[in-house]
């Protein structure tokens, strides 16, 4: 008999008690953004430390200038890998409270349609329900085998919903303690109700503000229109030059470090049935605007972009003013993939714009953040093992996905701990996180626990 | 002996009295934009009617819903041309009053440098001093010859500084009475202190606001960047396409109706020594941005433009927001010359933009005014005669200039009275109209009177 079967059986037997425990955590009003709930946040951290100690973790509440962290350690067999599990115990505010069908901090079980039961309450999906799937998996392993299959460090944050101000300093100050072979981050969704997924890439970003300056004051377009440089025209031309007619970015060197996505990965994405219609239809669009010949999922997960996030210049009030503005500016961002270097991209963009500025005009740049992309190798053995474990549990092939935006903690783990992350979660798109009537599927909670038990098993085999 | 010599002599003899009369008019606080001065405006109209009656005009104050008009008629010899003279008796407010060296409504004579004397006061240049040059010319003609050399109608407006709300309806209602062979408009400047000028062209304008709409809401650029259409990108591209690299406007049909300026006119403009350096230097620019190979004067006076007067879209506040906006808009204007048709230009621009809108996006247009260019024929006999008269008076060849912007009354005369205008004035660029310490050169006032006396003579010979 395999060593995982009795763990899974134990999780099935424990389900009711695990729900009771989750309800205990969900009852704590750990709203991190509102100082009035600071004591509740600490209570959440203390609750988790107590639970983890019961399981056998060396757990402690760790103070920060903000809400505390929870750090817990558990040894594994000699030579086993070391994983860091990340989740957050803080939750979003509950306003508007009148739109909730139930008390957000009095969780309940509800059958929303035949065969579909959910756990209600603030934090049920984001992220208390999710992090408890891992805690319960550890508990069952310990109960059945007296140990965990690998060395586990747990980091629970209490400020994720309020910008994680303490995270970077905490990682920097405790790098040696927290560094593991890789991280498991449980704050994401499944592809859909049937299909588990692992997110292995997140796009990086470079933000840049560009201001084109022409005359030393606003000019009358009748008196100066023709001879005088118009900064809106110069800016529009520079921005327009950034994409060719097929949606490629034309900045020299922009694609350096961009890799082609392996064909088997692209093929698996094709199977996800995400099309221009399904992605863009709900927002009123239908025609992919990015590089031609690539699917919407590839465009979002594995291709870089140049986007114009804001533009302003001249007279923008009601009516009309025949002015030639002294300056115009735009906020431009680049989503990066693979090995694109934020510094190189920023410099290349600046050079590209500078080349298009007439000799009597000038341009100024102001940086707004830059971070490289996160990309776990598609052929990572950890990835393959975790996928197999998920596929076994859900009886459906797990998919490898990417993320179009960034999840800061993943970049922080990379930066401060030199550690890659596997993003695995069991949320669903309709969980209404951050909104009234947040819920978490009972199947997510139950099969999530079983998934982690299997993943811990698989990673160490 | 010529018939003009004694008229000029009489003007020289009358100078002191003419100054006294001007001071009387300058003392009236006819600020049209401030309702507190409504009675002063009427007083200005009444003062002018009285003066004109003294000369022998059939003059009257004509009520409007706003400040009154002054209309005056004087017959000329049978078969002589009929000219309409236009000026305005209202003035700008005087704020900031503390910056005036003298009381704006207590005019004075001041020698500002050896040999250079000016008349100070609000309205001295704009436009009371100017309109009185014509009145004094008529007076001297009448005194010397008992008649005017041609039929003259005078129209003095009292709302020019507050948008002329009553002008169009007044012209429409009194078209038969006001229609003349052509108009003389005295509200402009000389080319410089030595060089008299006649402005015979004014560019027209089409204003258009364009709004590109993409998704039905703002999108997160991480989640949608790549597949989703970005309205700023679409708008920037459409605007950038409007000019080619040589500054030509690429909208099909845009140059229909644009004529090449006669080479002798271009040559006369070359003699004016207005260069990129002199025009653009003071505003911090140096490189003409319009159509290559044309002088800055030709670009401003005789070539059409497409200008972007305002643009806005997405996030434009402090910092950065990774948003893909739902819409972006720009205010675009075209300066028109010669026979360009505003309706055709507007339609061509709209078609040009529409062609560049992806199938899943939309565009909306909002018109902001449209008027054709004003262009008196360069070989008009009236123009030649007036130029000769000015050249005789100033002992320097008068130049034919254009205006880059519009002067609404000229278009209104065209529209409502089917009448062309010659724009002749004796202001200087440093007259500080609309500003504290407005002044009018004594030489402008004196030689301006003599110039009109000569022009009236020349036009009828």
Description:
- Chains A, B: One of its GO terms (molecular function) is metal ion binding.
- Chains A, B: This is Peptidase M20 dimerisation domain-containing protein.
- Two copies of one chain form a homodimer.
- With 461 residues, chain A is an alpha+beta fold.
- The first copy, chain A, folds into two domains: 5-202 and 374-459, Zn peptidases (Aminopeptidase, 3-Layer(aba) Sandwich); 204-258 and 304-371, Alpha-Beta Plaits (2-Layer Sandwich).
- Chain A has 14 helices and 18 strands.
- In chain A, the strands form four sheets. In chain A, strands 1, 2, 3, 6, 7, 8, 15, 16 and 17 form a nine-stranded mixed β-sheet that branches.
- In chain A, strand 1 (58-62) and strand 2 form a beta hairpin.
- In chain A, helix 1 packs across helix 3 (128-145) and helix 12 (381-394) crosses helix 14 (442-459).
- The longest helix of chain A has 22 residues, at 5-26.
- The two termini of chain A are 15 Å apart.
- The interface between A and B is large, with 78 and 78 residues.
- Strand 11 of chain A pairs antiparallel with strand 11 of chain B, so a sheet runs across the interface.
């Amino acid at each position: 008999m395999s060593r995982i079967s009795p763990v899974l059986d134990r999780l099935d037997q424990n389900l009711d008690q695990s729900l009771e425990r989750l309800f205990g955590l969900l009852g704590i009003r750990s709203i991190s953004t509102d100082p009035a709930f600071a004591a509740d946040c600490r209570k959440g951290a203390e609750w988790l430390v107590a639970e983890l100690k019961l399981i056998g973790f060396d757990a402690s509440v760790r103070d920060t200038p903000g809400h505390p962290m929870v750090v817990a350690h558990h040894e594994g067999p000699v030579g086993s890998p070391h994983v860091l599990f990340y989740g957050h115990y803080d939750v979003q505010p509950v306003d508007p409270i009148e739109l909730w069908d139930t008390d957000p901090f009095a969780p309940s079980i509800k059958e929303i349609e035949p065969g579909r039961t959910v756990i209600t309450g603030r934090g049920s999906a984001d992220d208390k329900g999710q992090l408890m799937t891992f805690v319960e998996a550890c508990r069952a392993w310990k109960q059945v085998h007296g140990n965990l299959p690998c060395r586990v460090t747990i980091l629970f944050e209490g400020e994720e919903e309020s910008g994680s101000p303490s995270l970077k300093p905490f990682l920097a100050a405790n790098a040696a303690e927290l560094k593991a072979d890789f991280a498991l981050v449980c704050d994401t969704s499944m592809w859909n109700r049937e299909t588990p997924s692992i997110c292995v890439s997140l796009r990086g970003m470079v933000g840049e503000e560009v201001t084109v300056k022409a005359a030393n004051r606003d000019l009358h377009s009748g008196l100066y229109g023709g001879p005088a440089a118009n900064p809106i025209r110069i800016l529009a031309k520079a921005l327009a030059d950034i994409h060719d007619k097929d949606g490629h970015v034309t900045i020299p060197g922009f694609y350096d470090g961009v890799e082609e996505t392996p064909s088997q990965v692209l093929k698996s994405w094709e199977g996800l049935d995400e099309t221009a219609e399904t992605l863009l239809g709900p927002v009123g669009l239908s025609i992919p605007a990015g590089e031609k010949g690539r699917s919407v999922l590839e465009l979002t997960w594995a291709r870089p972009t140049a986007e114009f996030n804001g533009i302003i210049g001249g007279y923008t009030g009601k009516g009309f003013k025949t002015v030639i503005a002294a300056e115009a500016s735009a906020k431009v961002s680049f989503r990066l993939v693979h090995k694109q270097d934020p510094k190189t991209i920023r410099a290349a963009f600046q050079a590209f714009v500078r080349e298009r500025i007439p000799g009597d005009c000038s341009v100024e740049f102001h940086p707004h953040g830059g971070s490289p992309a996160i990309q776990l190798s598609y052929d990572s053995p950890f990835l393959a093992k975790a996928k197999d474990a998920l596929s076994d549990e859900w009886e459906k092939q797990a998919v490898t996905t990417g993320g179009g935006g960034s999840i800061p903690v993943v970049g922080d783990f990379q930066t401060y701990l030199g550690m890659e992350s596997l993003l695995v979660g069991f949320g669903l798109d309709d969980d209404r996180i951050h909104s009234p009537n947040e819920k978490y599927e009972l199947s997510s909670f139950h099969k999530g626990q079983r998934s982690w038990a299997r993943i811990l098993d698989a990673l160490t085999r």
